[in-house]
Design goal:
alpha/beta, Rossmann fold, Arc Repressor Mutant, subunit A, six-stranded parallel beta sheet, elongated
């Protein structure tokens, strides 16, 4: 038995392309296409227990409860640069990016059909999450005083100013900096600043962590 799929997108050519790709799947039938919210709600009423593949441009706050009532599953079509975070919180079954391949589209729909969740993440988002993970590891490596000193260094404070702020000696600040260089694989203030930028270590979060 084939599962009904509803396509909702304001880009008609792209919508037709998705229909063409999914037409080759034996267990999937694109039952309807639409480009406006009113028509979409009508289709959901008529085709219960279907899969909705819908652009993020639609009003999902209204769609989610309606789909749940109708027993439908959902796949959101995101544009490049849109974060998947809010859609995961909204409870969609699948996340698919417009610039992705036809094979990825098929994989997404097939997994949602099997009641699995599908999250496709573009390279830039994966890279960002990787940097966040590295940033977290760095936080755990550095002591509270070291994080504080790094925050001041990133704001271009002089060693003497840091020592005065922390009520310690310049030599103690230099010792802490050497420890930071060793732990981060850097060798001076410039390389530390570049390292911090690459790994999302900003003065604001460094200082808030030491408050």
């Amino acid at each position: 038995m084939k599962t009904n799929v509803i396509l909702a997108d304001n880009q008609s050519l792209f919508c037709a392309g998705m229909e063409h790709i999914l037409a080759h799947e034996d267990n999937i039938q694109v039952i309807a296409k639409c480009d406006n919210q009113v028509r979409l709600h009508q289709l959901l009423n008529y085709f219960r227990h279907s899969i909705l593949l819908c652009s993020s441009a639609f009003d999902w706050q209204a769609l989610i409860p309606h789909m749940q009532t109708m027993g439908c599953r959902s796949i959101v079509l995101l544009e490049s640069g849109e974060s998947p975070r809010s859609w995961l919180e909204l409870g969609v079954n699948g996340i698919f990016y417009r610039q992705s391949s036809s094979l990825a589209l098929i994989d997404c729909v097939q997994k949602v059909l099997k009641n699995d969740r599908y999250l496709q993440m573009p390279a830039d988002i994966l890279a960002s999450l990787y940097r966040q993970a590295i940033s977290s590891q760095i936080f755990s490596m550095l002591s509270r005083k070291e994080r504080l000193i790094v925050a001041y260094v990133l704001q271009n404070w002089k060693t003497s100013d840091i020592a005065a702020k922390m009520q310690t000696t310049e030599q103690t600040v230099k010792n802490h900096l050497r420890s930071v260089y060793r732990k981060t694989g850097t060798f001076d203030r410039l390389s530390l600043a570049l390292f911090a930028a690459q790994n999302q270590l900003f003065p604001s979060n460094l200082l808030s962590d030491t408050a």
